[in-house]
């Protein structure tokens, strides 16, 4: 800003002292050479002072006085020119007059505008200010998040985006019911929570949690659009797309969870792009991904759990062991990041996730297990807790899915998955006295005989990984998947509401039931239904559809309210209270998996699609002889 402010001053011509043009008519003719000289001297001193002020006064916050001083200089100088010294020049009277007229006119216009403003009501003024603000915001948006051209890359083979209508009328009827539930969840959010992250279906207003920061990022819209597309809810999909186009803005001062934003937003946007082919989803995914990259600026390259989208400052959750990052969070980026490199040609995404993989490969693992906590400053493990439920779950899932998504060429990922699962089976998987197979939690060398709802997804994962498992153990893993599905179904069946608790025990004569009050809730989670769906796809055993239908009925009976769907606080109570939250994953995952369970297999076949951990389908990358930027041939 210094240069432009300076130019009018430095560029100002030092007026020639000459009689006959001054605004001081009495003295004009009588100015002697010495007086002219003194006047010139004073003027030069004044200009020098202005320069001095500009160059030598300190910067930034102290700019105001400088600008003030400069303005005085500028105004005085103009005045001097218009009313005084310049007037001394010969033949300048017309110019002087027109300048004076201009100043007067400007003055009057400003006065007039001020008067008009004063006549306006408070509301009118507010509205005007708002319009101005909106205009500025729009301009900023255009500058900041305007579509950047991306390199043209071949669209991966997108197959099976068909209707998937089942041939059996009774199955079709069930699928229609699930579609209707999706419509109720969406319409309610549309009516009461539009633009907010989630919905409070009882209070009938918007809801958010700290994972999305303080901003309204429309998490439900982004998480749900691909489900709308798959279900053929075209109007609703268009509505969601329009909101994303016009309102989804990541230049906000919000501290968000890198993991949650990746799986729900980037995953959701990429899936919507691949399914619909609409460029806007790809552009938004890339814009957001750029905002997540500063989270990787740690001494080890293991990302922070949270990042501020505006400042790029990252940090970890206060509750995590010794300032650690969480395995399931930094280990659940691979699928989306590989797609980002594929779509943008920017190697950074691929390199970041491969760096994490390499770092983990070098580390010692207690009992061959991956602890849930890793300190991003020191590169050391935190507490030696291992879980296939919360804090660990999707790390294992993404190892398997990295292999599947690479068209089974990423054998390093497959090997890492196989080794991890082998250790988990050895230390964490047990059979209860009643014959139920469960996955416990490993805590410092001790197995806690408790399984979380979140861990129920592993049934589907074991089945998905069966084909390609070492030593031809496909049958074993399919069986393990079936056993986990059975146990998790029992956890639902042993409640009053026929909905599963958050965690259940296999201890002191208890089997698949929650003990503590704060583990009896059901928050519309998908994991059990997800496992039913995978098991259905691999076995076509009708019991999985039957179990899925039980869940549909229970959700519709106990979680449906006039303003959407709500979680319940106690699945063992016949009169449960609501938690008043419609989670975005209910639309992204729970209803999508249910819909797929009652569709034919040609809708999103598993040979061509890999679902991210939030149920967003991403196509298998049949790269052939294309090399991902940043990848070395040896790694593929
Ligand atoms: C989802 O956001 C994802 O599935 C995640 O991996 C863990 N679980 C929640 C829903 O329960």
Keyword list:
21 helices, three-stranded antiparallel beta sheet, globular, single chain, disordered N terminus, mainly alpha, transmembrane helix, metal-binding, EC 3.2.1.-, Seven-hairpin_glycosidases, 18 strands, 636 residues, binds 1-deoxymannojirimycin
Please explain how this structure is put together.
This protein is mainly alpha-helical and 636 residues long. 51% of the residues lie in helices and 8% in strands. The strands form 8 sheets. A 3-stranded antiparallel sheet has the order 3-4-5. α8 runs parallel beside α10 and α13 runs antiparallel to α14. The longest helix is centred in the first third of the chain and has 27 residues, at 93-119. Mean pLDDT is 86; it is low at 1-33 and 50-92. 1-deoxymannojirimycin binds at residues 394, 454, 525-526, 585, 589, 613-614. Ca(2+) binds at residue 613. Keywords: Calcium, Coiled coil, Disulfide bond, Glycosidase, Hydrolase, Membrane, Metal-binding, Signal-anchor, Transmembrane, Transmembrane helix. It is an enzyme of class 3 (hydrolase).
Condensed summary:
By secondary structure, the protein is mainly alpha-helical. The protein has 21 helices and 18 strands. It is globular, with a radius of gyration of 34 Å.
Shape assignment = globular
Molecules bound to protein: 1-deoxymannojirimycin
Q: For the residues shown, what is the average pLDDT?
A: 86
Rounded Rg: 34 Å
| Category from helices, strands and their pairing | mainly alpha
Strand order of the largest sheet: 3-4-5
* Euclidean distance between termini CA atoms: 52 Å
Question: How much strand content do the residues show?
Answer: 5-15%
Major β-sheet profile: 3 strands, antiparallel
